[in-house]
Model the fold of this input.
Amino acid sequence: MTNEEIQQLIRLAQDSRVAELEVQRGENRVRIRLAGATTDVVPAAIAVPGPVPVASAPAAHAPEPAAPADPLADPSLVMIKSPIVGTFYDAPSPDAAPFIKVGDTVTVGKVLCIIESMKLMNEIESEYAGTIVAKLVSNTKPVEYGEALFALKPNK
Done:
């Protein structure tokens, strides 16, 4: 790709307000991430025709129910992170069962996934013993160095 083509891709990403854009042409691959962009999708409010509600006396404030706690916010969890940039695979081959599932207990040295980088398949092993609480990356998705792959509750 030429510099002009890359600049056009940057303008396209900025104009369309996407958080990330990845383009591959043959051996050339470009990933553009815009600073400050979020990937959260917020549904638009929909106006429903109908009668306008009449104001009434203010209701007594009832305590709001507590929001469910995010299980990944548990400070005792260990995030198993990608040691390299590449493509995440949760199984040794497309037709094989995944190495691990959420809820599985793993030991130190257990293969958790494969990350393909530069045509090499790298087995990622657990450095901790514990229970897998969450799988944070989908199969065949690109991962960055230091990106969290799994959340693990370590054994005590």
Notes: The chain is about 10% helix and 30% strand. The first strand starts at residue 20 and ends at 25. Strands lie at 20-25, 28-33, 78-81, 86-89, 105-106, 111-117, 120-125, 130-135, 142-143, 148-154. The two ends are 52 Å apart (CA to CA).
